[in-house]
Amino acid sequence: LALLSVNSRMAITEMAKKVGLSRDTVNYRINRLLKLGAIVKFFPDIDFTKLGYMTYRVFMVIDDTDEKEYNAFLETLKHHPNTKNVIEYSDRWDMEWSLIAKDIIEFDCIVMETTGKHPNVIIERIRLLGFDTYHSQLFPNTYYSGLNLAHRKTKIIECRPDVTDIRIISILGEDCRASTYEIGRKVGF
Question: What is the pLDDT of residues 125-135, one digit of tens each?
Fold first, then answer.
């Protein structure tokens, strides 16, 4: 699971080497975890900065007394095309909305338009610009120990994705373990 959380497209043979099991055993275990529902989905970890986007965060204190309005607001955030994630807290802030935008103007327009649709839900908010400098980890450190997960340093190069690139990213978002053959078929190659 730790290996898949770092790179969900890692080849099963590579995983087998890292965990010291046979390829068939690793494949069996992944399929078992899928069947049990422990693995729900394989998703890509996309570096949006290379696509010309920055990540922004909005922290909010929420009034959830009107459950219908609150749920409508939550659905609006979850289904917005620029949303990366929505996290609920039980601390100083009730909710964090993480989204991507090309620049501060686009970000501000998205926030004003989206939150303006539900003015009675938000009590307080703070916006943090370009605040994407941390790396979250899904499991305790002990899960990653001995797995040789050194991250390679890469040059920051902005690419200009075309329609096909966006389609491939979309397919990977649905199932990151899809084979390149399957991706090519869906894209039309």
Answer: 887 665 444 44
DSSP 51: G
Instruction: Report the 3 state secondary structure along 63-111.
Output: CCCCHHHHHHHHHHHHCCCCEEEEEECCCCCCEEEEEEECCHHHHHHHH
What is the total residue count of the chain?
189
Model confidence pLDDT, tens digit, residues 26-77: 999 999 999 999 988 888 888 888 888 898 999 999 998 999 999 999 999 9
Answer whether 24's CB lies under 8 Å from 57's CB: no
Q: Which of 97, 81, 78, 77 is nearest to 89 (CA)?
A: 97
As a whole number of Å, the CA-based R_g of the chain is 19
Q: What is the amino acid identity at position 169?
A: I
